[in-house]
Amino acid sequence: MKPIWKYILIAFFAILVLGCLVFSLRYFSGREKDNVCRKLDIIMMEDNGKQLVTEKEIAQILDDNNLNPVGKTIKHIRTESIEELLRKNPMIKVVQCYKTPAGVVTIRILQRSPKFRVVGFISYYVDADRKTMPVSMNYAAYVPVVSGRTTVSMMTSKMFDFISFLEENPFWNAQIEQIYVCDDLKIELVPRVGDTIIKLGTLDNYQAKLKKLHKLYLKGLNVVGWNKYKVIDLRYKDQVVCSKVGQEPELKKVITEKKDSIISKKL
Predict the structure, then answer these.
(1) Which of 111, 172, 241, 244 is most buried, judging by how many CB atoms fall within 10 Å of its CB?
(2) 47 & 165 share domain
(3) Domain containing 218 — which CATH number?
(4) How many structural domains is the chain composed of?
(5) Helices 55-64 & 79-86 angle (0-180, nearest 10)
C-alpha cells in the first residue's frame, strides 16, 4: 500500500471515531437531561458513632425547602442549592452533592466532631476546630463535660488545650469525667471512679500537677483505696494535700529521686 493511502485510511478512521464520540456525548447527555431522579442517597462520612444529624433529618430539610430531588428531572436539579442549604445546618462541616447518569442524587456529609460539652445557662459543644456548636436534639456525644463559670474564650483556648492533653494520655482520658470551673476560675476535676474531688487550681503548669497526682494514684491510692480521701489538692509545689471526710487535710510531700518521685510515707 502506498504511503498516501495509508494516511488517508488513518484519517478516515480517526474522523469516524471522533464522529462516534461526539454522537455518543450528545445522545447520552440528552438522555441524562430527560432522566428522572429515582433515588436520593445520603452518605454520612466518618461519623465515628456520633450521629448528630440523621439521614431522615437531611431528607426532611430538603422536603421543607422543596429541594428533594426524587421525581424531578436531572436537568432541573441544582446540586449547588442543596449544598448551600445543608451547609447552614450547624451540625454539618462538609457537604457534597452530585448527580449520576443512573438517576441517583448522592449527598455526602461530614459532621462536625464535638470535643467536649459545656453545661450551664447555655449548653453547647466545642468541636475539634475550636468552634462552638449547639447541642444535638437527637444525640448526646460521649465527651468530657465542663460546667461552672465558663466563657467561650476560655473554652476555646486554655480549656481546649487542657482537654486535648487529657485525650492524648490514655490514663487521664479514662480517668477524668467532668471538669468544674469555680467562681475564682480555679479548676476542679471529677474522676470516673470514687467520690473524690481533685483541686487543680489554675490551668497553668497542669502537666506537672497531673504528674504528681499520677504518682499518688500509683504509690498510694492503689494501696489504701480510691475512696479514702474526699479532696485531693494539687495546688502546692511538690506537695499533694489530701482531706478525709470530716478531717483536717493530710500533707503528702512528693520527693523527686533519680528513678521516680515517691510519696514520703504510705497513705
Answers:
(1) 111
(2) no
(3) 3.40.50.11690
(4) 2
(5) 110
Cα 40 from Cα 72, distance rounded (Å): 11
Inside any domain, residue 93: yes
Q: Decide: 243 and 249 in contact? Cβ < 8 Å.
A: yes
d(CA 17, CA 27): 15
**Boundary-marking domain end, from 91, 111, 131:** 111
Which residue would you say has higher pLDDT here, 78 or 28?
78
Clarify whether residues 236 and 159 are in a common domain.
yes
29-81 confidence digits (pLDDT tens): 555 556 888 999 999 887 566 778 889 999 999 999 999 999 999 888 999 99
Domain, as residue range, for 197: 115-263
The listed range with the strongest mean pLDDT (154-158, 190-194, 254-258) is 154-158
The number of residues in the chain equals: 267
Percent over 90 (pLDDT), the chain: 47
**How remote is the C-alpha of 108 from its chain's centroid?**
17
Q: 22 or 190: whose pLDDT is higher?
A: 190
Strands 145-148 and 176-181 turn out to be parallel
Please check whether residue 164 lies inside any domain of the structure.
Answer: yes
Query: Is 83's pLDDT higher than 60?
Result: yes
Nearest to 128 by CA among 169, 86, 167, 87: 167
What would the grid cell of residue 60 be? 426532611
